[in-house]
Every structure is written in C-alpha cells, then in structure tokens.
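Priority: low. Protein: Organic hydroperoxide reductase OsmC/OhrA. Input follows.
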Amino acid sequence: MSLHTASVHWQRAGNTGPGQRHGTAHVWRFDGGAEVKASSSPHVVPPPHSTPAYVDPEEALVAAAASCHMLFFLHFAADAGHPVADYQDAAEGVMGQDAEGRLAITRIRLRPRVRYHASTPDRATERALHERAHHACFIANSLRTEIETLLDGDSAPAPA
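Result:
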C-alpha cells in the first residue's frame, strides 16, 4: 500500500464583503514540489469567479486517467518488443447525469496517437496493449465512469 498526498490552498482575494461571490482560484501542491494553479471549471462557475487559464478538477481527472493509461501502455508496449518513440493523447471527459441523476464525468475518451521506435504492432496487438493498460491503470480502476480508448480511424458515438 502507498500513500499519495496533495495540498489544496484557497484564500479569499480582496474585500468582497458578506454574501458576495468569491473567486475559485487556488493552488495544488504535490509532495515532489510541483505547484499547479487551479480553479473551478468555467462551465460550472462562469468567469470572473473562475479562471479559465487554470486547471479545473474535471480536466485534472481526465489528465490523470490519460496519464495513468499512457504509463502502463509504454511499459507493456516495450515489454512486447514495441518501444514507443512518441505518445500523444487528446483525451476528453464528458459531463452528464449519472445513473442516480447526479452531475458527473460520465465518460472519459482516450485518443492515443502512438509512434513506435522501431517495431510497429499490428492493430489487434495495439488494441490488446491498450486493453491491458486500461485494466492495469489505478485511476481507471478507481472510477465508476466509462473510459474508452479510440485509436486513429476509430469512430465514436457523439457525447450523450
């Protein structure tokens, strides 16, 4: 078992007075020293109370799922004799109502584009490597939402 920590710090900026809306900009600090400027999503809390240039929790969730998947994929691809030279993912999360009618990220769609160092696997092998990465990913295993992996040329249904 391991422990993973993050520190979140928000402080009221300026004298907004009682009953007035507050800003949502805050800072995430991680044990390795990294700091990330964060805010609520502008889709949830409109500017000026949110800061669109900062990372919002929904984006961070999508990035965490995509990153975890990628790290396992890199490992499994290398072990299978297909080391990766370049990996890019234009991941997206869809916000909607879950089965209980609550607002949630209901789907995360990964769109990895992989360029291999030497030996490129066939499509079936590449899909199997992504499936293996998906099942190994700690983040995916922690979520109830659907996570799809679409390779180039795959079609996907429109978000619900």
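The mean pLDDT is 91. The CA atoms of residues 98 and 104 lie 6 Å apart.
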